[in-house]
Amino acid sequence: QFPFGRRLPCDIYWHGVSFHENDIFSGQVNKFPGMTEVVRKITLSRAVRTMQDLFPLEYNFYPRSWILPEEFPLFVAEVRMMKDSDPSWKPTFIVKPDGGCQGDGIYLIKDPSDIRLTGSIQSRPAVVQEYICKPLLVDKLKFDIRLYVLLKSLEPLEIYIAKDGLSRFCTEPYQEPTLKNLHQVFMHLTNYSLNVHSGNFIHSDNVNTGSKRTFSSILCRLSSQGADVKKLWSDIISLVIKTIIALTPELKVYYQSDIPAGKPGPTCFQILGFDILLMKNLKPMLLEVNANPSMRIEHEQELSPGVFENVPSPVDEEVKVAVIRDTLRLVDPQKKKR
User: Fold this and answer.
1) What are phi and psi of 245, to 5 degrees?
2) Helix, strand, coil % (nearest 5) of the chain?
3) pLDDT tens digits for 40-62?
4) How far apart are CA 287 and CA 63, in angstroms?
5) Exposed/middle/buried for residue 127 (C-beta within 10 Å: 0-12, 13-18, 19+)
6) How far apart, in whole angstroms, are the C-alpha atoms of residue 60 and residue 183?
7) Which H or E element spans position 173?
């Protein structure tokens, strides 16, 4: 680690959070300029919705969404219109703060009037989305998938998707949202950072059980039940590629302003965390994209009040070590010389 920078040039610079050094003239950096801004919830929503307007059938993997506060009147009007045309429609919506992470500030509502407009939404913009009420359940629990995607270059566009990911489980059996259970985060929200505090969270030493498992173990299970796992993978790959295509124009603007063509500068690559939810019919839906997915391979265990120790997590290790190893192999600067 070089907390105060480094004078000698490196082949690969591995930054913690974002691309921030102006004196790197060669080598490769593991962050793209502007990526953190481009995958924020509002920017991502805007980019995908632009593509939905142009290619509605190709971009039907992202829930209907509105940006608050600016689209609040539109949100109210559209919901009212949809309810009038179909009185049996009983939707649920999920409100996500733009800059929030790890489940912070997310809540569910049944009606636009339930949005907490008091001051906070003005100072804290958010995205409100139609909540997916019929997710695929495993062991009666809702779960999402964290997939790791390597954006190796923008020009030419080069994307690699890791063959395995993490399945992160809720810790209470799922029921469709009602006014009574809307606030039960351990039932509705799959965020690891929330569920790890549930009394039902299971830290497993096995990749097939517990509250965090490998995605491959879920695929095995689905395959044994007769599901078309090949089609599921091809749908996921298509979702990833189309999402990155939607983000590319803005990423290029940031890239060209930080690393102008023709001047010496580094090239960039980045590992992204795609959070995907499977619907009951096995259709993958994009929840969000994370610019800095956690690469920790251990979890904290509280031995006694306030005393923690780090315990290895076999599931994280199995998936993340492979992601970093293969990323380094793919961007290996020595390869050209051999």
Assistant:
1) -60, -40
2) 30, 25, 45
3) 999 999 999 999 999 999 999 99
4) 8
5) buried
6) 28
7) none
Give the N- to C-terminal CA distance of the chain in Å, as an integer.
28
Phi-psi map region of 27: left, alpha, beta (phi>0 left; psi -120 to 50 alpha): left
For residue 15, the one-letter residue type is: H
Contact call for residues 204 and 213 (beta carbons, < 8 A) = yes
CB-hemisphere CA count at 13 Å for 280? Answer: 6
- Taking the C-alpha atoms of residue 54 and residue 242, their distance in angstroms, rounded to an integer, is 13
DSSP string, 136-172: -EETTEEEEEEEEEEEEETTTTEEEE-S--EEEE-SS
Please name which of 171, 192, 166, 185 lies closest in space to residue 300, comparing C-alpha atoms. Answer: 192
Q: Give the sign of the dihedral formed by CA 248, CA 253, CA 254, CA 260.
A: positive
The first and second tokens of residue 34, run together, are: 């502007």
Q: Of the segments 15-19, 86-90, 104-108, 160-164, which one has the largest average pLDDT value? A: 160-164
Helix (H, G, I), strand (E, B) or coil at 311: strand
Is 233 in a helix, a strand, or coil?
Answer: helix
Q: What is the pLDDT of residues 223-239, one digit of tens each?
A: 999 999 999 999 999 99
Strand-pairing partners, residue 151, are 159, 270
Domain locations along the chain: 12-33+134-331
Q: What is the CATH code of the structural domain delimited by 12-33+134-331?
A: 3.30.470
Give CA separation, 199 vs 107, 181, 186, 196, 310, in Å: 21, 18, 10, 8, 19
pTM over 0.85: yes
Q: Which of 143-147, 163-167, 182-186 has the lowest mean pLDDT?
A: 182-186
State the amino acid at position 125 in one-letter form: P
Give how far Cα 60 sits from Cα of 18, 46, 66, 129, 229, Å. Answer: 30, 14, 15, 14, 20
**Eight-state DSSP code of residue 40:** S
